[in-house]
Amino acid sequence: xxxxxxxxxxxxxxxxxxxxxxxxIIFIVLLxxxxxxxxxxIIPSDNADQAVNPNTYIELPDRKPLPHVTLxxxxxxxxxxTALTDKWHMFLFGYTFCPDVCPVELSNLHxxxxxxxxxxxxxxxxxxxxxxxxxxxxxxxxxxxxxxxFDADFIGMTxxxxxxxxxxxxxxxSWKKEQTIDATGKVxxxxxxxxxxxxxxxxxxxxxVTGLFTPPHSAKDMAKAYQIAIQTEKN
Length: 235
Known about the structure:
Blueprint (H helix, E strand, L loop, with lengths): L1 H41 L3 H5 L6 E9 L4 E4 L3 E4 L8 E6 L6 H17 L9 E6 L7 H9 L6 E4 L2 H11 L3 E3 L16 E3 L3 E4 L4 E6 L5 H16 L1
Helix pairs in contact: 3-6
């Protein structure tokens, strides 16, 4: 009787280590699953890294030609917008006396171009064009010298006020010369600001407007969105 009781107790004790070990294994597995789940939420995947902010680029439903106007560039002289059919173009509108926004946007575009140069062949790269909406102060030569400070491949253009209005209005680009009063109470014709839109217009090699990059601009997102845009156009 005593022996049986002892055997019974010893049999029960023999199962305890097994149950404890099983419990530990289950706990470790559950802990690993929890940690992996947490890591997947914290660490972005390759696909997540390639995602583009949907607000970066807005594709237009229809392809409309660039408004037909004549602009002026220091090297090539007068250029018709209808002749911009050699490659993709990105148009940023601003002016060289702009104290903050324009330098930031041109720097963003330079960073975008650096990223694209690593991914695309030269013929697929966009031509960045900085168009002045301050023709009273920005000459073609001044525009050209200004943009080269940001990127050697950028070009600067300007034009007559009537041509600039005919170009920007259909594109939804607004701009207004702000009146500044000097110390004598007169209108200062040399020192003034121009408020303007900062959307960047994209046109395809057929000189058709395909869409616009909306602010705030991220160089990384613009580079990815541009590659998607040109691929979409091919399809």
